[in-house]
């Protein structure tokens, strides 16, 4: 407790000292996209393996005519979507998303975080039960905490645990929601959707999936993990983002028209936020409308991810059993974690790589569990095998 007359900010300073002592103090560092696969920090150009521009959209502006047309649009929406912030650009974007996802309707949020947190908090009501994967993104976790439903966390990707919980508790709740990331952002693995779908059908539960890292990357037309597994009709409510493979900003929820209308009426992160800028909505719409035809980019990206894992296995970062544990689909996910254990080692290795011209961020708790600090390699369709080769040579040198 702070004594009477003491400094009311002293607790903040103590917390900052603590995270600094743990090698966990974060910093905002100005960064600039300096080319198709380059980032510039502190005046130095680095080969970028840290961003989520999976399809190379940010590094590869679509067309000069498209850029010119967007430059004529307002830079801000000026109000909530429910006041006057929902423009023709938002309407076109929502329609394009619904068509791409094979859904009745969609609604656009100002961020992926707002979409996840708001959808979970709004749809999961008092009297319901939420079963949430322990490694879900913070936006889903915060949505669970904000809802009035009871919450239980299950071990990562453990469908058997979910089944056992429902066999004991299903009758106690009006509705049950199984909430999970589709692709997990720090591990690059995928939720066991076929098993979860079967469990949901058996116990009359509803799956709610965040496709943030699957949108654009997985599926024949880039709609995500559900499309790749042929499960879109079985998982009708899906959340996505416009800030990763789509290369812009914002988030969305797609699903039955009744669900989307319910969110429009009651979702606080939609109602009480200024809408996405019209210029951003227009740019994201261009990508969504064309993304289905970018199979060559997805194919290259998946091949590059498999090549990266095979190279790292040869350097003993992964064991053969680690690689064998991944499905064919998972091996092509462009998120490759290199778990080093200690926070200090992760930060040190990231710094050494930067000195050799590579940006690979160190990921530490609480973003990942204690003792699993790591480097997170994020691949893009603009990367080539020679970029991966040079990176892995640098990793081998810097970790020796």
TrEMBL record:
The keyword Acyltransferase belongs to this UniProt entry's keyword annotation: yes
The gene coding this protein: bioF
An MF annotation (GO) of this entry: pyridoxal phosphate binding
Catalytic activity: 6-carboxyhexanoyl-[ACP] + L-alanine + H(+) = (8S)-8-amino-7-oxononanoate + holo-[ACP] + CO2
Superkingdom of origin: Bacteria
Source organism per UniProt: Allorhodopirellula heiligendammensis
Cofactors (names): pyridoxal 5'-phosphate
Domain Aminotransferase class I/classII large: 46-395
Keywords, ordered alphabetically: Acyltransferase, Biotin biosynthesis, Pyridoxal phosphate, Transferase
Family matches, as PANTHER family: 8-AMINO-7-OXONONANOATE SYNTHASE, CLASS II AMINOTRANSFERASE/8-AMINO-7-OXONONANOATE SYNTHASE
Name of this protein: 8-amino-7-oxononanoate synthase
Database matches in InterPro entries: Aminotrans_II_pyridoxalP_BS (IPR001917), Aminotransferase_I/II_large (IPR004839), AON_synthase_class-II (IPR050087), PyrdxlP-dep_Trfase (IPR015424), PyrdxlP-dep_Trfase_major (IPR015421), PyrdxlP-dep_Trfase_small (IPR015422)
Enzyme Commission code(s) on record: 2.3.1.47
Classification via Pfam families: Aminotran_1_2
Pathway as given in its UniProt record: Cofactor biosynthesis; biotin biosynthesis
Biological processes per GO annotation: biotin biosynthetic process
Family to which the UniProt record says this protein belongs: Belongs to the class-II pyridoxal-phosphate-dependent aminotransferase family. BioF subfamily.
Subunit relationships: Homodimer.
SUPFAM superfamilies linked to this entry: PLP-dependent transferases
Coiled coil location: none
